Queue: 2 jobs
Job 1
Amino acid sequence: MDLRVRALESVLTAKGYIDPAALDVLIDTYQTRIGPRNGARVVARAWADGAFRERLLRDVASATSAIAELGYGGRQGEQMLVVENTPRQHHLVVCTLCSCYPWPVLGLPPAWYKSAAYRSRAVKDPRGVLADFGVTLPEGTEVRVWDSTAELRYMVLPLRPAGTEGMTEEQLAALVTRDSMVGTGLALAPGTAP
């Protein structure tokens, strides 16, 4: 697939239909700015607003509606379920069949999310996958794996870091990473956000 995409990009560039620099900007925008920033705003609102958090975690219809309140929805995010990490339970999202991913809140799926290695290991060895991402959980923490589908996509509500009381939603959003909303990472501690 990667070779096909590169070949197609080369042909379109050679014919003058696309500008590689503009394409790079578009991809970077969806990968690192638009999508993950949207999800971070959803998480920050949930951390700061108990009523919003409750709606977000209630069920698919409520989660999808709560996310839409912030202006995020549409293709690849029609049906969303949000699962909450706690000190006793950690959630990890995967799509075992392909790469179903909630684009409106997380942007483009990273290459590792689409890889066969991640898709198979996340189910068989979730703690090993987490370790590969630098996440070590206490032994008593249950790891739960969620399989996204074309009909239902998942997002993780990461555990709110200690020391964030009194922070604004904007400050809280800066602590949320794409990986923490997939479950392969944790939210950043205050003072460590880029």
Job 2
Amino acid sequence: METLKNGPTARMRLGKRGEDIACKFLEQLGHRIVRRNYRAGHLEIDIISKDKNGLHFVEVKSRVEPMAASPEENVTAMKQKKIAAAALRYLNSSKDLGVSGCQEVFFDVVAVSFKGEEEKVEWFPEAFIPLYL
């Protein structure tokens, strides 16, 4: 396993590649990327985007085939809770003009699967609704 001392690990490179692909995919759908890799302490949101419907907090899951479970299945209830907590912090502290005027907030998942040179992107809009904030 590579170490951070020697640069990003293979897992980190895969995650960044998946996030880059997810951003391009969302932009093709009409989203404007507001933030990437937003951090609030130990909490993180991969992508924050905005479209005509509102603000999207997007979790990106990248996997190499074959895989035991589909990428979107790895967004567990605990992960959803952390994303929702990070989103709340973002909304409460954001002075970002990009979020002003948003009336709706969505929690989406983008799954990126790699098989050799092939990549498959699946978007799960409104993948979950946090009920525990």
